[in-house]
């Protein structure tokens, strides 16, 4: 199996727990992964501090890139990253991607992933959605991206906030083509 090169972008939507769980899961899947590059927006750091009460994003052994670093490898298609996961994805970032406004590393990397016809997974978070949000989701979908809403499921009977949030992250892991044990409906 080819090991994957993955970009994780964390933006300032509510739901830092999704980003934390994804990074935790990727650590456990290191045998399937060649490289993880992470980029956070300023608001992503602020929301993480507010919602999780720490700055533990600094502790992960992945390569972190400043949000305006256009020298990051995945700012160019030549670096051949397979998959980009934006988790959580704010409506602002979604809108910039939908309209090709590549004015930071997150929107540029998404632009590259779409133009190279690679996999973009946007874990969008807001509620309710305006028509602008819905149209932007449609545009990104038509361009080949996958909109994976941060909508947890409950049929696995989760017992904690982490287990609820993991229902979303498990779907993201599946979409990224990584293999991980997780709850499967009606499987033994
Ligand atoms: C605590 C907090 C929660 C937020 N939740 C959301 C959200 O769920 N969805 C969203 O689109 N924006 C949310 N925002 C607003 C975004 O952080 C803001 O629009 C920001 O400009 C997004 O920029 P970014 O995509 O570069 O992080 C939230 C802001 C704060 C401070």
TrEMBL record:
Keyword Transmembrane: no
GO molecular function: flavin prenyltransferase activity
Family named by the database record: Belongs to the UbiX/PAD1 family.
Organism in which the protein naturally occurs: Pedobacter caeni
Entry-linked InterPro entries: Flavin_trans-like, Flavoprotein, UbiX-like
SUPFAM superfamilies in UniProt: Homo-oligomeric flavin-containing Cys decarboxylases, HFCD
Cited Gene3D superfamilies: Flavin prenyltransferase-like (3.40.50.1950)
The protein's name: Flavin prenyltransferase UbiX
Residues given in the record as FMN binding sites: 12-14, 41, 90-93, 125
Pfam families in the cross-refs: Flavoprotein
Reactions listed under catalytic activity: dimethylallyl phosphate + FMNH2 = prenylated FMNH2 + phosphate
Protein EC: 2.5.1.129
Residue span, Flavoprotein domain: 4-175
Keywords: Flavoprotein, FMN, Prenyltransferase, Transferase
């Amino acid at each position: 199996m080819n090991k994957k090169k993955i970009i994780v972008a964390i933006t300032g939507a509510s739901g830092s727990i999704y980003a934390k769980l994804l990074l935790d899961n990727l650590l456990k899947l290191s045998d399937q992964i060649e490289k993880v590059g992470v980029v956070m927006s300023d608001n992503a750091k602020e929301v993480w501090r507010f919602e999780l009460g720490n700055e533990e994003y600094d502790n992960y052994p992945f390569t972190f890139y400043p949000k305006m670093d256009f020298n990051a490898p995945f700012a160019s298609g030549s670096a051949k990253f397979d998959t980009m996961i934006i988790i959580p994805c704010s409506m602002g970032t979604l809108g910039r991607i939908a309209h090709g406004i590549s004015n930071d590393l997150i929107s540029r990397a998404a632009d590259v992933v779409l133009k190279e016809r690679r996999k973009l997974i946007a874990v969008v978070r807001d509620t309710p959605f305006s028509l602008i949000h819905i149209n932007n989701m449609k545009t990104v979908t038509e361009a080949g991206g996958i909109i994976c809403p941060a909508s947890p499921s409950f049929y696995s009977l989760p017992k904690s906030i982490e287990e609820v949030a993991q229902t979303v992250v498990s779907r993201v892991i599946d979409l990224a083509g990584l293999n991980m044990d997780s709850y499967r409906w009606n499987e033994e």
